[in-house]
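Below is a filled-in request sheet from our internal design queue. Each sheet records the structural input a requester submitted and the sequence that came back. We keep these sheets so that new team members can see what a complete request looks like end to end.

REQUESTER: design group, bay 2
PRIORITY: normal
MODE: inverse folding
CHAIN LENGTH: 218
BACKBONE (tokenized):
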């Protein structure tokens, strides 16, 4: 369970404190920002919405207009992530006339090594971050955050791999979200046997497997 809100809200201090106190005192509220507090403000005409459909972004294709995704569930987050690796994603990270400004760690560039039969380090339809080494493994339709290590003969498909994850030799990771600093042991499989996955991991309604931060896989 996560207690973080992915919404973006702008309040005056007085309005926020008043709304929180009012909601806390309500026995009929589930105390949810998007489900209770915002609707209460909207109901009395005290809330306003920004219409992304009117947002004119230089260099944006028409298919991107009004882009917004509610990533409040595992499946929604995974789906939005997988859209980014597509040939023509609905949201384009690479629009240089409207750059996404962020702070990058001073990591070295990503590297792909080994070019032998059945031991070739490469990635297709994927986003690979700095500091990551794909060493004789295969990455397909995935997002690899910084400092990920993909070892020889391993396979990563349709997955989001967070920083510092190591996937050792001959491991298979499919349709998964793997949080920080997890080590996937040699020969380990994730997303291959649904029954085994259900016994070991959290699995979303759509079958996305979640490995928690620092989880030890045995």
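RETURNED SEQUENCE:
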């Amino acid at each position: 369970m996560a207690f973080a809100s992915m919404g973006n809200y702008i309040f005056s201090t007085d309005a926020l404190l008043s709304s929180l106190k009012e909601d806390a005192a309500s026995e009929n509220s589930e105390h949810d920002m998007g489900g209770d507090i915002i609707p209460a403000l909207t109901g009395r005409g005290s809330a306003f919405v920004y219409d992304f459909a009117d947002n004119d972004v230089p260099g944006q294709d028409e298919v991107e207009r009004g882009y917004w995704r509610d990533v409040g569930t595992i499946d929604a987050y995974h789906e939005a992530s997988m859209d980014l690796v597509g040939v023509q994603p609905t949201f384009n990270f690479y629009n240089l006339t409207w750059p996404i400004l962020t702070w990058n760690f001073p990591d070295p560039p990503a590297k792909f090594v080994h070019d032998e039969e059945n031991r070739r380090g490469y990635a297709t339809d994927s986003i690979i971050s700095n500091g990551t080494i794909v060493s004789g493994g295969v990455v397909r339709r995935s997002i690899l955050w910084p400092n990920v290590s993909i070892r020889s003969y391993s396979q990563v498909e349709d997955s989001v791999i967070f920083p510092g994850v190591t996937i050792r030799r001959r491991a298979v990771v499919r349709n998964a979200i793997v949080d920080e600093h997890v080590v996937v042991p040699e020969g380990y499989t994730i997303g291959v046997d649904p029954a085994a996955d259900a016994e070991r991991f959290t699995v979303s309604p759509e079958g996305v497997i979640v490995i928690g931060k620092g989880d030890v896989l045995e």
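SHEET NOTES:
- The helical segments are 13-24, 33-43, 74-84, 194-200.
- The first helix runs from residue 13 to 24.
FILED BY: M.R.
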